[in-house]
Amino acid sequence: MSSRRVSYFYDAEIGNYHYGQGHPMKPHRVRMTHNLVVNYGLYKRMEVFRPKPVGSSQMTRFHSDDYINFLKVITPDNMQDYVRQLQRFCVGEDCPVFDGLFEFCQNYTSGSIGGAARLNEGQSDIVINWAGGLHHAKKAEASGFCYVNDCVLAILELLKRHQRVLYIDIDIHHGDGVEEAFYTTNRVMTASFHKFGEYFPGTGDVEDIGYDDGKNYAINFPLNDGMSDDSFCVIFREIIGKIMEVFAPGAVVLQCGADSLSGDRLGCFNLSIKGHADCVEFVKGFNLPLLVLGGGGYTLRNVPRCWTYETAVLLDQDIKDALPYNDYFEYFGPDYRLHTPVSNMANLNSDEYLERTKIRIFEILKDVEPVPGTQIQTGGTENINPVGMDIDKNDDYVDPDKRPVNDRKDHAAEFAS
User: Fold this and answer.
1) What is the pTM of this model?
2) Of 65, 141, 227, 265, which is most buried, counting CB atoms within 10 Å of its CB?
3) Known catalytic residue: 136?
4) pLDDT of 100-121, one tens digit each?
C-alpha cells in the first residue's frame, strides 16, 4: 500500500449533467471512472470525500463578477434574454448552456479547491479530482468546453501556503487558460506538452515563455501528430526533471487530460494508458504535495480505463488487466480489458525535432530565478503577507502624530563604522 496519504473527491451528481446531443464532452465519464475505481477495490485505500460546494466568491478570486453572475442566472429557458452576454462570454456553441450549468461548475471546482485546501493543511499528500482539470476557461470567457477554470483556482489556493507551484498539463490541447492566468508571475510555472499547429486553441509555441516577472516561467513543448509512448516519456522526464531542479516547487498540480491517448475522438496522439500513466508515476516520485486532475478525453470507453489505472498508480497498487464486472461493463467490450492496444499511426515527431525543442527549453530554464520574487494576491485573506514578514496587526491604533516606539532587536550591521 502507498505510504502517502491519498484523498479522492467525487460527487455522484457529476454524471447527471449533459452538454447536449452529439457534444463530445460527457461528464458521465467521471461516473464511469468512479464505478471502476470502486469495483477494483481502490476506494478502500484512500479517503473518499464528497466536495463541499464552493460559493461564487471563491470563483471570483480569478473570474470576473459579471461572468460568474451570468453563469448563475443563464438557463436554456432564458437564453433569448441574454443574447449580448452569450456573445460577450463566448457561451453557446462549444460551451453550450444546459440545465444545471452553474451547479456543474460548482461541482468540479469544489473538488479542486477542496483538494488544494487539504494539501495546504497537511491532511493529504496526494489529492485526486477526476471531474476537474478544465484548463481552457479565461477570466471572463468560456472556452473549449470549460466554464470555470478550477486549475487556476486550485493553484491560487495552494499559493496561500506555498511560495512556488508547478502546473503540468499532459492534455493534447495546450493549457492556455492556466498559462494566461499566471503569465506575469514567477510564483507559478506552467509546463504544457501538447499538439501544436492548426489545432485548438492555437497557442503554446515554444517561444511563448511568459512576460515581465513571469518571463521564463511558461514552458511549452509543441508536438506533432502520432506522439508515441517512448518519445513522450523521454521528453517528459527530462523536461520535468530539469524544472524540478531549477524551479523547486512547493506543490504540483497535474492535469491528466486523456485526449492524448491513442484512438481519442478529438485527439491525434498515440499514447497507451501505461505511457500516459508513466507521467503520473514520475511526478509522484518527487514526493511533493500533488493535486491530480482530469481534463479532456472524448472516447468514452477509454477515459475511465486511463484514470482508474492512474488512480492505482498513485496508490502503488497493481490491478488486473481483466476488468471487474461493473455498472458499465458493456462499454468496454469486446475485450473487457483495462489496457487497449495503440494504433499503427506514424509518429511525426522526429528525434531531431524533439532534441532541438528540448535544448531550447533547457536554455529558457537557465534564466529561472533561484528565489521567488513579488507576492501575488490570491484573493483570499489567509497568509497574504510574504512569508517571514511580521505585520503589526495594531497599526490602525497607532497615533499618527507620534513616532512609533521601535521595539525590534538591533542588528549588528547598524553599528558598523
Assistant:
1) 0.89
2) 227
3) yes
4) 999 999 999 999 999 999 999 9
